[in-house]
Each structure stands twice: as C-alpha cells, then as structure tokens.
Design a protein that fits this description.
The complex is a heterodimer of chains A (224) and B (435).
Chain A: H1 4-21, E1 35-36, H2 39-45, E2 61-63, H3 64-74, H4 76-79, H5 115-125, H6 136-149, E3 158-160, E4 175-176, E5 201-204
Helix pairs in contact in A: 3-6, 5-6
Chain B: H1 2-8, H2 11-16, H3 24-28, H4 30-39, E1 98-99, E2 120-121, E3 134-139, E4 145-148, H5 149-154, E5 158-165, H6 182-186, E6 189-198, H7 199-206, E7 214-219, E8 226-230, H8 231-236, E9 239-244, E10 247-248, E11 258-260, E12 273-279, E13 294-295, E14 301-302, E15 311-316, E16 327-336, E17 342-348, E18 356-357, E19 359-361, E20 370-378, E21 383-391, H9 400-407, E22 420-423, E23 429-434
Parallel strand pairs in B: 3-12
Antiparallel strand pairs in B: 1-2, 3-4, 5-6, 6-9, 7-8, 7-12, 9-10, 9-11, 13-14, 15-16, 16-20, 17-18, 17-21, 19-20, 21-22, 22-23
Classes of the chains: A mainly alpha (224), B alpha+beta (435).
Chain lengths: 224, 435
C-alpha cells in the first residue's frame, strides 16, 4: 500500500482539502480545552485487556495453587468454595455441554470465549465489595485457578501474559460477531390475518405469584 | 409571622389542627374537623363532607396553601407516592448488580421524569464528585486528552430526545407469560431529552488515527463497566451528555457524565463515563461475551447485537389499569425503534385477526418513544389487545412465536415481540401469550 511518509502526505493533502471544503471541520486541538494526557496518567487508567489476543495484559504471573488461596479469601463467599455459586450469585464452573439444553448453564468454562477476558473482568470489577484492589499476580493466580476448576488447564499451569491467550476456551468458536437481524420477516396483514378459532391463550401470568405489587411501598416478596 | 397568620386563618384548617391544609393527613382528619365545626355552630354549608365537592367547596378551596419555596426542589403530590421505580426481588442476587423498572402504567408522555427513569447498575450507584471526575480519551489518537467537567461544558452543545432500553426488557417472558404487570414486562425503557456534546466533536478534537476502527468506553463505577463500539457509530450520532430533561444527570443515570448511544441496547450507553480508548479491534469484554450475547437453540451465540428492533406496547389498558365497565375508551401506547422513526402502529382487539391503524402523536422523533392512541368502544366481552409497530425501514414487530422460531427461548435479550393483554368481562387485564 503506502509508506508511512506517503500516508502522512496523503493525510495532509486530505486535511487541506477538508479544511478548504468545510470551514467548520475542526482539526485536532481546535478548541484547545483540557490537558494533554501524559504517559503516566494514561498508564494509571489504561487497565483494559483485549479478550481474543490478551493485548494489554501486564507483567506478572500466578499459579493455580496461589489462586486457590486467594480464591478462598476473596471469592468463595459469593461464588462457592469450588465455583459452584451461592444462591443466585454466579457459578463459575460447570455447565459443559449444556448450551443446547432446555436449561443451559452459562459459566466461565461452558460459555466464555476468551481466557484473557477472565483476567480483565476480575481485575476491573472483582471482588465486588472492593473492586480493583488485587495485585496483577493475584489476578493471574485467580484466573489460573478458575480455569483449572473448569478442567481447562492442568494444576501446574502458570498464568501470565503469554500463556493466557493460548488457552483455548471450549466455546470460543461458537460466537457469531455480526448481527444477523432482522431475522423475523413479519408481515403487516390488516384483516382476517388468522382463523379466530386458532387464537388460543397458551400461557398467562394470572395466578403465577411471580409479580411484585405495583402500588404502595416496594414489595420485598418476603413471606408474610 | 404574617404568612402564618394567613395560613391559620381558615376555620377548617384551624380545627383540623394543622398549619398545612394541603397535607394528606389533614384530609384524613377532615371528618372529625367538620364534625367539630358543626358542634361549634359553623355555617351548614361547610358541614357537608361531600368527597366530590359540588355543591360544597373542598377544604383546599377555602384555605391558603404553603408559599413558594415551601418545597424548593419540588416533588410529586403525596397521593402519587406509589408511582415509583420498582424491582423484581427474585430476579437478581442483590440490588447492586440489578435493574429497576419505570412505572409505564402511570406515565402519559414520551419523556420519562428523571426520578422514574429505569436503573441498571453493575456495581451499585457511585456518587461521583464532579470536580474530581475526568474523561480521558486516548489510544489511536493524535492528542490524548484529559477533560474536566468544566472543559466538557465549553464544547458546542447539542440536545436530543432518545430512549434507552435494556435489551433484557421482556427477558422474563421468553418462555411464557410470567409477570402480570406493564411495569415489569416493559419497564426497562425510558426516554429523556439529553444535552451534551457530540462524541464526534470530542474525537475530532483528539484526532482519530487512521488505524482506529473501534472505541472502548468505560465507566468510573466499581465495575469499570466497559463496552466496545464501532468507530462509525461513535462518529454518527453518539452523545456525551451531562444533562437529562434540562437538569444535571441524576446519579442513577451517570452523573456527572454519560454516553448516549441512540437506538442501541442500553448497556453501551456507559454511565459515569471516564475513559474512551480507540483501537483497531473490539475488546471482547465480559459484558459483550459472557453477558449481552444471545444464545441460540443450536448452541451458537450472537455477539454485538446492539440494535434495538422496533417494539410497541399498549400502556392503557394494562394489568395495573383495568377497564371500568363497557363503553368508549382510548387505547394508549408507546412505540420505539433503534432504526429511526416510527412509520405506523396498528392495534388489534381480537388477538391479531384484524388490525386498524392507530393515531401517532407528534413529535415523532428518531430513536425516541412515540405515543399512539386509538378510540375503542368496549362491548364488555372478552378481548385480546395487541399493538404492532412498523418502523421507517419497513420492519414489522414480530409475535413471540415468530421470535421463538428463530431464536428459541434461551436468548434472554432482545425480546421485542407483540404484547397481548387479555381483557376479561369484569374489565381486569392479564399478561398472556397466544399460540
């Protein structure tokens, strides 16, 4: 294609043409508000890790064994001792082979397509009461432990910026990343669109006792 | 004080023992007060407790109310205290990572009042100090920038009306009719007038590098909630807003700064917005892989299903607002589409056998709620009410059966099916699904 110098020339030419064509088109720094972000400032907030290739994973590492220790301290209360979940709090383990079932179980092992996303999410949002407080090493260790609980890595696995992107998650290739909708081709028929005899109620919310009340104070739905 | 003298002047108020004749409690005490006034020989015209006023005046017509700034911010009438956001306790483990529903059954326009806008949190509601809040824009840009709220307020301002809908709205109804309530079947949608700066203005200011194709947007909440957005959407119509219905954003809605991505699923409109990073590929964050992806019956999943397809619902009558006997009614409802404007809404009272066009009410705005009505003479017989929207692309709102045929019933998100309300002869209304 073009060398970087040629690209710069083309870009400059483009800018000149654009500036001439639309007087209002703002060039970078047109308003001049705010301050330039320094590398140090950027590093402070630049926490994102890309799921499919692990871009952004920091230095450091963690073992499955260390992960078990951190998990017991930081995670087990909500996610269960072995990732089985607690009440309605999320399961992290299991569900392999259930995605076509009537009641599929979506967990890290059965559903998540990319291992680096596990590191990213623990690092950005967990543990829920004190997010973004774990060291990079401990996040690596937790990631290793959760992958191991799902039988995706051996007990000797060490998670780091090189090893995590190489973990092939079972559900990785099951995602379609382009939206196929519209997938219903409904027609706007106006009259005699169906045989009235075929119009039947097949389910009703009446009497199911699932609906909180919508008047008065908030409904906790606790047994009276 | 003079004002207190005036306030205390009316006899009824004095006898009721309150300085505020508009307070609800004074109404409750009214009977006793009037009985007392009789005993004291008050004029007979004041002694007839007729709830509907004529021919006597109501107490609030015979007194003076509290003055200006009695309620410096203002609030709804006490008798509207039940019109609130509500949650479904069994739906989530706690309220910090959860959702609440707007009371659509009590709303009459296309704008959701700020206190009733539905909430979705991933780590609770942060209370952000606007003086300390910053927006950083970096990655594949020419001039990485850090902007304070004061900086952002200086950029050219735009105001737009757009809905925001959680893609899980109606998610509990995929398998069957479950929740007998408009608030809980459809309340994960709200619509507001947003004011801020175009995201494209901010991106021009930092200078987008040629390789950039995607943006990662991230919140300052405890979940650092983040999503990937294609750059062309960012440059098209996205807004970085600080105001909602003319006042500062509510903390629940991202104060002091949020993104609004018109027509796309609500979770991409990142609240408490602190960072925008441009890159050449999407990030595949947890919120766009393990969540907000749609599981199909064959075990595959759809990702990046951002668009809100056209949807409509009848808001009157509904389970919360039944009919009171046969006669002439106005069926009322709301329609919306992420594809632009509403072209038409049809209403059926016989479960979809026959349809007639409803009247659309101005303004009909792109990616905003649109109101529709249709006069209806109810004969007191069982009825099955439905509404069906057609948007400006020609897309027709499907039935739940048509959706299930394509997607099964485990995809959680993007249930935009036609809602059926069953009207019984006593006027009560129920959430049902048809074959």
């Amino acid at each position: 294609m073009f060398s970087s110098r040629e690209r710069t020339l083309l870009l400059c030419a483009g800018l000149v043409i654009a500036a001439g064509a639309i007087a209002r088109a703002a060039e970078p720094g047109h308003y001049g508000y705010g301050e330039k972000a320094t590398p140090g400032q950027i590093a402070g907030w630049d926490i994102d890790v890309r799921g499919d290739d692990g871009a952004g994973l920091p230095p450091g590492s963690g073992t499955v064994h260390r992960g078990a220790v951190v998990y017991a301290e930081q995670c087990a209360l909500c996610h269960g001792a072995f990732g089985e979940g607690e009440g309605r709090l999320p399961k992290l383990v299991g569900g392999a082979g259930t995605l076509r079932d009537d009641r599929p179980e979506l967990t890290v092992g059965s559903y998540w397509p990319f291992a680096p996303t596990v590191w990213d999410y623990i690092n950005r949002a967990m543990p829920m009461p004190a997010p973004h407080t774990l060291s990079a090493d401990d996040v690596y260790a937790l990631t290793a432990y959760i992958l191991h609980l799902n039988d995706l890595v051996p007990s000797a696995f060490v998670a780091d910026r090189d090893s995590l992107p190489k973990v092939k998650m079972p559900n990785r290739d099951s995602f379609v990343w382009t939206d196929p909708r519209p997938d219903t081709m409904a027609k706007a028929c106006m009259s005699a669109c169906a045989d009235p005899a075929d119009i039947k109620i097949v389910s009703t919310a009446e009497g199911r006792n699932l609906t909180p009340r919508t008047t008065g104070p908030l409904d906790t739905m606790q047994p009276k | 004080m003079r004002s207190d003298l005036w306030r205390n002047w009316p006899l009824v108020s004095k006898l009721a023992g309150t300085q505020n004749p508009l307070a609800r409690r004074s109404f409750l005490g009214l009977g006793a007060a009037l009985a007392g006034s009789l005993a004291l020989g008050a004029r007979p015209s004041q002694a007839e407790p007729t709830p509907a006023s004529p021919p006597a005046d109501a107490p609030w017509s015979q007194s003076i109310g509290p003055g200006v700034v009695d309620r410096p911010y203002g609030r709804p009438a006490d008798t509207e205290a039940g019109v609130i956001r509500r949650n479904v306790p069994w739906l989530t483990a706690g309220t910090e990572s959860s959702i609440s529903f707007s009371p659509l059954q009590d709303l009459h326009g296309i704008i959701t009042p700020n206190g009733l806008f539905f909430e979705r949190y991933h780590a609770g509601r942060p209370d952000v100090d606007p003086d300390q809040h910053r927006l950083m824009i970096h990655g594949l840009v020419e001039r990485p920038l850090i902007l304070s709220m004061k900086d952002i307020l200086r950029f050219p301002q735009v105001t737009r009306i757009h809905f925001i809908e959680c893609p899980a709205n109606g998610g509990m109804e995929w398998r069957a009719a479950q929740l007998n309530s408009l608030q809980f079947t459809h309340g994960m949608i709200s619509c507001a007038e947003w004011t801020g700066v175009r995201l494209s203005t901010l991106l021009e200011e930092v200078g987008v590098r040629k390789e950039a194709q995607w943006a990662m947007v991230e919140g300052a909440d405890g979940a650092h909630m983040n999503r990937s957005l294609p750059l062309n959407k960012c440059l098209d119509d996205c807004l970085v807003v600080y105001a909602q219905n003319g006042e500062a954003l509510r903390p629940e809605q991202g104060y002091p700064l949020r993104l609004v991505v018109p027509g796309w699923e609500g979770n991409v409109s990142i609240k408490w917005l602190r960072r925008i990073k441009l890159g050449d590929k999407p990030w595949y964050s947890r919120e766009e892989t393990s969540k907000y992806t749609d599981l199909m019956p064959d075990g595959t999943s759809r990702g990046f299903t951002w668009l809100i397809d056209a949807k409509s619902v009848i808001t009157f009558p509904c389970p919360e607002k039944p009919l009171a006997g046969a006669g002439l009614y106005e069926i009322r409802g709301l329609a919306w589409t992420g594809n632009g404007k509403i072209r038409r809404v049809d209403v059926s009272t016989d479960g979809g056998v026959n349809w007639q066009g409803a009247r659309l009410h101005e303004p009909v705005l792109s990616k905003a709620l649109t109101k529709f009505t249709l006069p209806w003479r109810w004969d007191g017989q069982p009825a099955l009410l439905q509404s069906r929207v057609i948007d400006e692309t020609g897309y027709v709102q499907p039935t739940i059966a048509q959706l299930r045929k394509q997607r099964g019933s485990n995809s959680v998100y993007h249930n935009n099916s036609i809602q059926t309300w069953q009207v019984k002869p006593d006027g009560s209304v129920f959430d049902v699904q048809l074959a």
